[in-house]
């Protein structure tokens, strides 16, 4: 009976040792687990804090400068401005005697006015080196560049969508979207006396 009791005691002690070891291991592993979660939490908290402490403005309000009309002592119908090539030049109405390519930037007879729905403002000028070569730097323009027309107290801003060349034979074919208000500019092609270049720009905004 005494021998049986000793075996029982040994078994109970063994079970107690195993149980204790498992309990300690569980506590250790739980401690590791808690530390990992804490690290993750700290990491996430730091990222969130850094985000909150970012001084970069999140809501940027763009304010446009008010449109101030250009003085027009010459009585131009409109004024063309292309900032990229530092061009600012007025043009007269179709029937004005000064609306002539040998004198000024010319507003072609088939043109529409800037405020006409889906219309096409067609402007022509010489390139070259003379004092009337108002479009001498037009060749520097690319698709995406902008041109502006001041007309009847409003500022019409156009963005160039297409540039192409045609043979200089007295005629020009204008390829454009007739459902959009358009500015077409035409001049001689740089370094090629047999060609003319056409710039097609579509209305982007009106002030």
Describe the protein.
The protein is α+β, with helices and mostly antiparallel strands. It folds into 2 domains: 1-59; 78-206, Sortase, Chain: A, CATH 2.40.260. The protein contains 1 helix and 8 strands; from the N terminus they run H-E-E-E-E-E-E-E-E. It has one helix spanning 2-53; strands at residues 78-82, 87-91, 106-107, 120-124, 146-151, 154-167, 182-188, 195-206. It has an 8-stranded mixed β-sheet with strand order 2-1-5-6-8-7-4-3, with no helix packed on it. The longest helix has 52 residues, at 2-53. The model is unreliable at 31-58 (pLDDT under 50).
Give a nutshell description of this structure.
The chain has one helix at residues 2-53, and strands at 78-82, 87-91, 106-107, 120-124, 146-151, 154-167, 182-188, 195-206. The protein has 207 residues and is α+β, with helices and mostly antiparallel strands.
């Amino acid at each position: 009976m005494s021998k049986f009791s000793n075996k029982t005691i040994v078994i109970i002690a063994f079970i107690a040792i195993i149980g204790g070891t498992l309990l300690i291991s569980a506590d250790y592993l739980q401690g590791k687990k808690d530390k990992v979660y804490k690290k993750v939490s700290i990491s996430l908290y730091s990222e969130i804090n850094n985000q909150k402490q970012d001084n970069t403005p999140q809501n940027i309000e763009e304010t446009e400068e008010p449109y101030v009309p250009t003085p027009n002592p010459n009585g131009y119908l409109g004024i063309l401005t292309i900032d990229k090539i530092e061009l600012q030049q007025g043009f007269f109405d179709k029937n004005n005697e000064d609306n002539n390519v040998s004198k000024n930037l010319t507003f072609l007879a088939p043109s529409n006015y800037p405020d006409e729905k889906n219309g096409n403002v067609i402007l022509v000028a010489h390139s070259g080196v003379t004092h009337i070569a108002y479009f001498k730097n037009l060749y520097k323009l690319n698709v995406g560049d902008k041109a502006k027309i001041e007309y009847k107290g409003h500022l019409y801003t156009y963005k160039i969508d297409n540039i192409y060349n045609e043979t200089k034979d007295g005629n020009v074919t204008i390829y454009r979207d007739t459902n959009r208000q358009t500015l077409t500019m035409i001049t001689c092609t740089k370094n090629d006396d047999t060609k003319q270049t056409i710039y097609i720009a579509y209305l982007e905004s009106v002030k």
